[in-house]
Amino acid sequence: MTAGYAAAAAADPFDRAASFLTCLIDSLSRPEALLLSHERVEEDAENGARELARLLLQGHFDLRARREEAELAALDAGGRAALAAGRTRLEKEHRRQLATVVGPVTITRCALRAPGLPNCYPADQVLGLPRERHSLGLRRLVVLEAVRGSYDHALEAIERRCGARAVGKRQAEQLVRAAAVDIAAFYAARTPDPAASTTLLVLSVDGKGIVMRPGHLREATRKAAERAMRTFRTRLSTGEKTCRKRMAALAVVHDADPAPRRPHDIIAPPGGRTTRRAPRKGPKARAKWLTASVQHDADQVIAAAFDEAEARDPQHHRCWVVLVDGAEYQLELIHAEAARRGVTIHVVLDIVHVIEKLWAASRCFHTATDPDAETWVGAKAARILAGDALGAVSGIRAQADRLGLSADQRAAANRACRYLENNAAYLHYDTALAAGWPIASGIIEGAARHLVADRLDITGSRWTVPGAEAVLTLRALISNGDFPQYWIFHTHRERERLYPRPDQHNYELLA
What is the DSSP letter of 134? Predict the structure, then answer.
């Protein structure tokens, strides 16, 4: 602190801000400023406004410091001891730096001391100051920017906002991790909005790989990576790439009103649709809730999704629909979780996966550019949607036999048939459409791209488990639209951790 600044603060904590504002107005009203382009004037005004905000913030802290000093000096030893757990000695002019969204400021406060005890700073608790030098406002900005794009881009955006490099890359990573610590507690304390018993309760799960640093792979993947032989010296082959990833598990829960449909609302009949009747719309998702984790296994993420579903329907009065892509391990976990909770679920195989299998099978009978391939896929899909999946399987195999295809030529068709047979229990689309259930898992597929691919799969990124988990859970939180509420909850919990009170009660979030 310079002598001039100290003198100004002693006279009036806001004198320096007032002087700066006067100078800024004078600078923008000079004759030479009237000749500048609007871009230059805008930049000068923006920089000046930021510095003015910093000086106002500094003046406020200086004013509080002056009043705190007077109040503590007026207390006798007994009053100080009661305030600071036996500390009676008063020391003034203790300073600490605080990095804020408008720039660095200095906070001056008094210390209450006693032999053998750490200093007590009453102002720190009153202000709710964090342990580190970054303000909660700056932390919030770091979190929002860092989960949106790379850390390098986040730091550039923060520098543009704050006017200077307010935080380093490693510090930003640490702040993001610290910001995610209360997400589980936040959702545990939240009460979802109730819904009518006729409202569908829809769950879906998926997985997405994230490239990890070698020490953060799961044990089986790490051992597979060690066994893998390098095919090329300068790049990884296809098999070697899979040994660099750790699978993140994702789940979504949402409400939807039933929307009955017919097969031709999903797949156009041969020759196309007429204009006499528009296709009926499917169920529209609302109150979506996403969760994801790379640290925890799929069983824990699926259990969390069931927890959310039970919070919405504790008496199991609603119809639970679970959309899957056919992964056996996911199906086993879903059925085990449903049995453990005693809830009846209706499992539906994602129709998009089915159609993709049919397109692959169509290459056994049509060339890639043959328009008849689309008709073939449409006819088979319509038959499956009508509830005759095994009939479609028989038709595909009979066609392959009739054409005398070899084992290699019919391999894709055989894979599609096995896929349909293995998941026959989940292909009752006639029942699903009549009941108005969703039959496509586009929400979870989109979440896998949005939550994971758009941020954690950017070029060159390799993650640790704590770093990936923090970014992933924060992105899910933001996608759910819960970040503003969560930040209030998190800052309250952070303050309780730093400044606990003997009569402190647990903080509960009211939905």
Answer: B
- The secondary structure of residue 228, as a DSSP letter, is P
DSSP result, 315-347: T--SPEEEEE---HHHHHHHHHHHHHHT--EEE
Residue type present at position 111: A
What letter would DSSP give residue 451?
I
| Distance from C-alpha of 496 to C-alpha of 477, rounded to nearest angstrom | 22
Phi, psi of 291 (to 5 degrees): -140, 150
Residue 200: count of CB within 10 angstroms of its CB: 22
Q: Which residue has the tokens 């991790």?
A: 177
Q: Is 293 helix (H, G, I), strand (E, B) or coil?
A: strand
Distance of CA 70 to CAs 9, 73, 122, 251, Å? 15, 5, 13, 56
How confident is residue 215, by pLDDT bands cut at 50, 70 and 90? confident
Q: How confident is the model at residue 213 (pLDDT cuts 50, 70, 90)?
A: confident
pTM: 0.85
Q: C-alpha 149: how far from its chain's center?
A: 12
C-beta of residue 451 within 8 angstroms of C-beta of residue 292:
yes
Look at residue 279 in the predicted model and tell me its pLDDT.
83
Mean pLDDT of 60-71: 94
